[in-house]
Amino acid sequence: MTTPRRTTVSLAAGALLVTGCAAQLNQAGAPVADSSASAGIPDGYDGRFRAVATVLESPEHGPQLCHTVMDSYPPQCGGPGVSGWDWSAVAHESASGTRWGGYVLVGTFDGETFALTEPAVVDDGSVERPQSDQANFATPCPEPAGGWSPVDPDRATDAAFQQAIRIAQAADGYGGLWVDQPTTGAEGANDPRRFVLNVTTTGDVAALQNAIREVWGGSLCVSPAVRDEATLLDVQNALSGDPGVMGSAPDITTGRLVVQVFVATSELQRTYDERYGAGTVRLEGVLIPLD
User: Fold this and answer.
1) In a domain? residue 198
2) Which terminus of the chain faces fewer neighbouring Cβ atoms within 10 Å, N or C?
3) Coil, strand or helix at 208
4) 165 to each of 77, 86, 286, how far by Cα in Å?
5) The pTM is what?
6) 61-120 pLDDT, tens per residue?
7) How far is 117 from 110, CA to CA, in rounded Å?
8) 222 and 208 in contact (C-beta within 8 Å)?
9) 136 CB-near residues (< 8 Å, 6+ apart)
10) Is the peptide bond prior to 74 cis by the omega test (within 30 degrees of 0)?
11) What total number of domains does the chain contain?
């Protein structure tokens, strides 16, 4: 039995909006942006949150809820303070005056401090983590009669593949690219004669396909992108220093910039919608509301 294996070549900012096997278009012929973004935590929410995270205290600061842990010994991290913490109540590691461990915490958060409302417990892996939406790296173009196969095997090579990548990335409106390679186990993995090269663009789909076909003889699908890579990278750069932003990355399958924050509020989502356009930014919160 053949098992689909998806390999991302470049997580660029393009997106494929698909229904069945065809790229979805609106009446004007432009890609339809996914409108299913989370509305976020309601305004005025004052309930409890759950966090699955490292808590660390060092000689420089009290217990903190870590959003990034540096790979050092002892480790270092930064994040909001944790009130009500008791190291004597939980198993932990320690070195050079630093104490730390991985825990499940329940409490309230005022934007600066996470206040425990019940004792923390050691994270044993049984509590569900926040899950990011999984990208769908399937090929959106209809499969040709007889299946995907090279149109010119002599130009389905690693060298031709690299040329195709350069052409795609240099094109106006470049959204992103990836390879979709159905294989059986490891056999045939990364074989240019077996995989489908997928490219997205906000520009002329047919023109880009023709340009890539000048050098690439393997399977190819060029389809519309909601936003180009340059747009999302500009947004990423603009908000990288915003308070509370822990990290961000373009999502090739939705044409959005996924931004990780401690609390994904409706107010913050509206702020980014107004600043960058609805649907450009999707927030992912580390703290999960419980009430």
Assistant:
1) no
2) N
3) helix
4) 38, 54, 35
5) 0.74
6) 999 999 888 888 999 988 899 999 999 999 999 999 999 999 999 999 998 999 999 999
7) 13
8) yes
9) 16, 18, 253
10) yes
11) 2
